[in-house]
Amino acid sequence: MRRPFALAAATAALTLTALTGCGALDKALDCARTAEAIASSVDRLSQAVSTAGNDPTQIEESLTAIDKELANLKDSTDNADLSKAVDDLSKGVETVRTSVKNGDTTPDIKPVTDAATEIGKVCTP
């Protein structure tokens, strides 16, 4: 009688470990996907800034897309390094947004690109 119980307990422990591992892997993959989406949004922001004379609304649309991805990422993490990188990117986005509202058609987006790079590093599985 002890063997089946021990076997069942061992199987349950392995299953729990596998599920926990998969959960961590899924979270890392979600983070990586979101980081990729943020990188795409930052690329669009860079392009929008370089062509702001043609269509200044593209900057705001790019900033909004970054905000959306940041909200997704904030909801899915409890990692301190990632939280800091997300906060830094949020601050950079707000700085760019303020510059644009104040009439700057070629705002400095380096804080945004730097923070996005850091998110990419933190989210690399």
TrEMBL record:
Q: Where is the signal peptide?
A: 1-20
Going by the entry's taxonomy, the superkingdom of the source organism is recorded as Bacteria
Entry keywords, A to Z: Signal
The name this protein goes by in its record: Secreted protein
